[in-house]
Amino acid sequence: MYNQNKIISIRENIMEISKNNISWIETWETNKSHNIEVGFDNHKLLKGFISNNVYPTLNNVPSKEFFSNLKKQIPKLYIEDEIIYAELNCFIDNEPYKIQFDYAKDCWIIKDKDDTIIEKR
Question: Looking at residue 21, what is its pLDDT?
Answer without folding.
Answer: 82
